[in-house]
Design goal:
Layout: E1 3-12, E2 17-24, E3 34-39, H1 40-46, H2 54-63, H3 65-77, E4 84-85
Parallel strand pairs: 3-4
Antiparallel strand pairs: 1-2, 2-3
């Protein structure tokens, strides 16, 4: 069951990742929110020019949302209820 994404991504200083939300497509009546993360390393791998400042990471996220959303949705479909995208997945 793929995910739909809405809302704004936020930089999480504790985990040094970008957090974003997804919602299962096939069950729109449910309000279940799927919290997803992409690590700093994964963002830097995906967007080669990304710096380490939160603003730069959020800008890189916005430039690569299609790929990030596809990976997170695929992870969710594989049974990962809290997808975390790491460098190895890029």
């Amino acid at each position: 069951m793929p995910l739909e994404f809405s809302g704004h991504p936020v930089f999480d200083q504790v985990t040094e990742s970008v957090r974003f939300s997804g919602f299962p497509v096939s069950k729109p009546w449910q309000t279940r929110v799927v919290i997803c993360l992409i690590t700093r390393g994964a963002l830097q791998e995906l967007a080669q020019e990304t710096g380490s400042e939160p603003e730069e990471m959020l800008a890189a996220f916005e430039r690569n949302t299609k790929t990030i959303y596809e990976i997170a949705s695929s992870e969710f479909d594989s049974g990962n209820w809290r997808p975390t995208i790491t460098e190895e997945m890029i």
